[in-house]
Structure formats: C-alpha cells, structure tokens
Amino acid sequence: MHLLDVRQARVLHLAAAVGTGCLLTLMLLLNSELARHGGALFASWTAHGTGALVAIALLLLLATRSGAPGQSFRYSAAPAPWWAYLGGMTGAVNVMLSSTAVNIGLALTGTQAVALSTQMLFSLAADRWGLLGLPRQRLAWRDLWPVLLIVTGSAIIIFAGRDP
Predict the structure, then answer these.
(1) Taking the C-alpha atoms of 135, 146, 123 and 25 in order, what is their torsion angle to the nearest 10 degrees?
(2) What is the pLDDT of residues 103-113, one digit of tens each?
(3) How many angstroms separate the Cα of 56 from the Cα of each of 34, 51, 154?
(4) Is 140 helix (H, G, I), strand (E, B) or coil?
(5) Is the pTM of this model over 0.90?
(6) Rounded CA gap, 4 and 32, in Å?
(7) What is the dihedral of CA 55, 61, 66, 71, to 10 degrees?
(8) 15 in the Ramachandran plot: left (φ > 0), alpha (ψ -120 to 50) or beta?
(9) 158 near 113, Cβ under 8 Å?
(10) What angle do helix axes 107-129 and 87-101 make, rounded to 10 degrees?
(11) What is the DSSP letter of 84?
(12) How does pLDDT run across 41-88, given as a tens digit for each residue?
C-alpha cells in the first residue's frame, strides 16, 4: 500500500471513530429523552426496534448491490462463540441504565464521563486477562497513565463541575 493511501486510511479511521463518539452521545441524549417521557424500558425497546428496522433496510439495500444477501458481510466461515450473541442484551441494559443516569442527576456529560472511565478500566482488564477470547496483553505503566488521567478528569467533571 502506498504511503499516501495509508495516511488517507488513518484519517478515514480517525474520522469514523470521531463520528462514532458523536453518534453515541447523540444516541444517549435521544434515549434519555425517551426514558424521561416513557421510562427506561420503553427507551430501550424503541432504540433497538428502530435500530433493527434500519439494519434490515441497510442489509436489503447492500444485498441488492453486492449479490447474494449476506455474502459480502462474511469475514469467517467459523461460527461465532455463544457469548458473542450477548451484545444485544448488553446493549438493551446499557440503554436503560445510561438513559436513567442522565435523568437522575449525572446529566449527559457526567454519564459519558463515567461510561468512558469504566470502558477504559474494563478494556485494560480484558486485555490483561484475555477476556472473551482476546489475546492476553502484558500491561505497562504507559497503558495505565492515560486511564488514570481519564478517571481523574471524569471525577472532576462529576464532583467539581456541579453546584450542590
């Protein structure tokens, strides 16, 4: 691959990550508004129901352009492990918990700060112990410092950024 192509790919990947972060924050805001009006379970059902409809529509659209349905989306012929199918369950619980947290005092920024901190801590643990099929990684101080800074920043947002 040409050096310019590699740089363009990195920019594209970074842009995709930034877009994902923006979409996750927007999703939390929208889901918390649904939860405020109809409850956390209603917000979760609505989010996952509309998400399923959009996924089906995209699958049908892409399948008509690339041949047989699903063929262009396969990466491996091996079946996924049973626990890989639990993502929908964790997503449903995540929508209920996060949309409730936004509405009971943490607000959007505090909820995102706690979520980021715990995601980083869980990621370190998953890497260290090879959870859910990940290769085990030996952690160094350079892996811990960014997480410490994120957790500290999150604590400042939550505890110092609000009036009692």
Answers:
(1) -140
(2) 988 889 999 99
(3) 23, 9, 37
(4) coil
(5) no
(6) 42
(7) 30
(8) alpha
(9) yes
(10) 150
(11) G
(12) 999 999 999 999 999 999 888 877 655 555 555 556 678 888 888 988
